[in-house]
Amino acid sequence: MREREFWELVEEVFGRGYGRSLSRDQRLSKLGGMTVVEALDAGEEPRVVWNVLCDQMDIPDRDRWGKDHAAPPMPARFDVK
Q1: Is residue 44 part of a domain?
Q2: What is the arithmetic mean of pLDDT over 64-69?
Q3: Which residues contact 3 (CB under 8 A, 6 or more apart)?
Q4: Looking at residue 66, what is its pLDDT?
Q5: Does some domain include residue 68?
């Protein structure tokens, strides 16, 4: 997943305003308490950040990928549970 695709999904799933606000304010416990923006700036894989955000916000798998997106493979080094 590219970062551009990440931001497209943020807007599609959460809405433009709420998604951007959530990305700046929501702390992700599985990523050391970083926000979405901090995690991406730190070099975390967008796919990982997306799954952690969706898990924390209780977004079911069927609703995570929007209409035009296929779920990209997870990086081998991270197992989201």
Answers
A1: yes
A2: 74
A3: 40, 46
A4: 74
A5: no
Residue appearing with tokens 């081998």? 76
pLDDT at position 32 is 96
Instruction: Provide the number of structural domains found in the chain.
Output: 1
CA–CA separation, 11 and 66 (whole Å): 10
| Contact in structure between 75 and 44 (CB atoms under 8 Å) | no
pLDDT of residue 61: 83
Distance in angstroms (rounded) separating the CA atoms of residues 25 and 65: 22
Please tell me the pTM assigned to this model.
0.81
Q: Three-state SS for 28?
A: strand
Tokens of 3: 């970062």
